[in-house]
Specification:
Blueprint: H1 4-34, H2 44-79, H3 85-100, H4 115-132
Helix pairs in contact: 1-2, 1-4, 2-3, 3-4
């Protein structure tokens, strides 16, 4: 059984959670990349560049991770997984995407440079998604009644 109101509310939380997760991941990467440019005085140009890179990065990250994230969300919703599975899925998706691109070092390399940063980015996105929608995964499913039907 399905609670239609809860399903609609959860669908809205899922969309909002995905958007904010992609933005958080992009901001994490942008602040990490542009950290060396920043000076203690907080130059407004660097701050503007960081936010600009975050928006561009969010669209790139969202475009690459959208389908794997939807699969992970569907599994979590159907199985009512509300724990750290969202963090793990975010990290796994990020590492998969990072390792699927052309790498430096070829197949003989033990670990591709930047893998830990990619994993941290995925964990950040998974955490933000969990805050928005993941804590209530499967809330729209109504457990079957344990007895006679309520219809008359």
């Amino acid at each position: 059984m399905v609670d239609g109101g809860q399903l609609l509310a959860q669908s809205i939380r899922i969309v909002l959670g995905l958007i904010l997760a992609f933005l958080a991941a992009a901001a994490f990467v942008a602040f990490g990349l542009l950290r060396g440019l920043a000076d203690p005085s907080g130059d407004p140009v660097v701050v503007g560049m960081t936010f600009g890179w975050s928006l561009v990065g969010a669209s790139v990250i969202g475009g690459l991770a959208f389908v794997p994230a939807l699969v992970a969300i569907a599994v979590a919703e159907l199985m009512q997984l509300r724990g750290i599975v969202h963090l793990a899925a975010g990290g796994a998706i990020a590492i998969f995407l990072w390792w699927s691109g052309e790498g430096v070092g070829g197949p003989q390399a033990d670990i591709r440079p930047g893998t830990l940063i990619a994993a941290a980015t995925g964990f950040m996105a998974g955490f933000v998604y969990w805050l928005i929608a993941g804590r209530q995964s499967g809330c729209w499913r109504v457990p079957p009644s344990s007895g006679a039907s309520t219809r008359s």
